[in-house]
Input
Amino acid sequence: MSSAAPTLDPPKAAPADPSRKPKPQPAYNVVLLNDDDHSYQYVIEMLGKLFGHPEMTAFVMAKEVDTAGRVIVETTTMERAELKRDQIHAYGADWRIPRCKGAMSAVIEAVE
Output
């Protein structure tokens, strides 16, 4: 008597419906705000460590935040934007400036 069970083919997946594409997540900007208590070196270092920006890109952003009062440092999903804002807030004081008491400020804004 044979005890071999018949083999079954795996069920075939239904063809993808091209009209049912997943919706992209809304985008949010992480915006760094200027203050007079942090040096260019601090901003360049922070943007490199937290966002992976090359030194020249970070310098351009530091100059923009200094002159315009704000600069977009990343555009991403809400969850990541919140994380990055919180990392900026937690980065700490600029040891180069004695009056500096804490990290820089940042906000997130929906991209329109």
Q: What stands out?
A: The chain is about 35% helix and 15% strand.
